[in-house]
Amino acid sequence: SPHHPSPSPLPPPPPHPAPPHPRYVRWGKVYAHKKNPEMNLATAIEYYEKAQMEYNTKEVDRLMKTTKLDKKKADKLAYVNPELGLEAKERGNEAFRAQDWPTAIKEYEDAIKRDPKNAAYNNNLAAALCKIMDFQGASAACEKALDLDPKYVKAIARKGDIEFLRKEYHKALETYQKGLTIEPDNKACKDGLQKTMRMVNSSTGSGEVDKERAAHGMADPEIQAILRDPVVNQVIQDLSGGDQAAGQRAMADPVMSAKIQKLIAAGVLQTR
Predict the structure, then answer these.
(1) 199: how many CB neighbours lie within 10 A of its CB?
(2) Range 156-165 burial, b when 16+ CB lie within 10 A, else e
(3) Residues 6+ apart with CB under 8 A from 113
(4) What contacts 17, CB < 8 A, 6 or more positions away?
(5) Which of 45, 147, 268, 272 has the least C-beta neighbours within 10 A?
(6) Where are the alpha helices (DSSP H) in the chain?
(7) 131-147 per-residue burial string, b: 16 or more CB within 10 A, e: under 16
């Protein structure tokens, strides 16, 4: 009978990749442990990186992620130092007086990192950002100041000034009024309110549409909600040539009157 060659043996299965060297993970955990007086998150991250290089697992990935987050938080906390914050603020003030806006911004940002609970530093930052026309950034800095201290009238007045510069007169009116409920004699809020009222009245009387102002108004969710209200639309229709008497009766209601005034201040409703 013919000789059949015997089938060649199957190749051996590929060896499983070795698990990460357990000692790297173990040492990483030791250095990341909060109760360890020698706790060193940077060293822990180095050990986890070595483990990842040998053989990455979900566990090592998770340990790496959480340790990096912990390190970020720890670094932020370690940076806090109100005394150095005050020094950075003074340097910021010097730069501001010299009209060196980029340096002022950098120093005020550093002051905030050094003393994150200080509302005044956010207000200073807002003032510097206004100088480079970054009204969005300035507005965010004011909001942060007011999160820290809701009755900080200086920041409220600055917020109103920014809204005025952005032609968001309906918002500026509200902001200045809010400042005056806290501090009735505040000059910045009083002046801001008068200046905004003058702008609203002069543009309303001119009959011309300020497209930029109207666009800002239309982008405001509160204005959008008022315009979607069928009752408001009926009143607008009545006032602009429909049933004038019904329109006037509706305007006697302070809530309705406030809504119509807000639309006029926002530049989305013209009166003749």
Answers:
(1) 19
(2) bbbbbbbbbe
(3) 76, 79, 80, 85
(4) 55
(5) 272
(6) 22-32, 41-54, 58-79, 82-97, 101-114, 119-131, 135-148, 153-165, 169-182, 187-206, 211-218, 221-228, 230-239, 244-251, 254-266
(7) eeebbebbbebbebbbe
DSSP assigned state of 240? T
pLDDT in tens, 86-130: 999 999 999 999 999 999 999 999 999 999 999 999 999 999 999
51's tokens: 């483990």
CA pair distance 159, 127, nearest whole angstrom: 10
Note if the pTM is more than 0.85.
no
For 137, the token pair is: 């950034």
Check: CB of residue 214 under 8 Å from CB of residue 266: yes
**Rg for the chain (alpha carbons), in Å?**
32
The structure tokens 């991250």 sit at 45
Alpha carbon 174 to chain centroid, angstroms: 20
* Nearby residues of 198 by Cβ (< 8 Å), 6 or more positions away: none
CA–CA distance, 117 with 106 (Å, rounded to integer)? 18
- Average pLDDT (152-168) is 95
Query: Hey, is 151 helix, strand or coil?
Result: coil
* Rounded Cα–Cα distance for residues 236 and 214 (Å): 17
As a whole number of angstroms, the distance between CA 268 and CA 272 comes to 13
Q: Which residue has the tokens 């060659």?
A: 5
Q: How far is CA 171 from the centre of its chain?
A: 17
Residue 244's Cβ-side half-sphere holds a number of Cα atoms within 13 Å equal to: 1
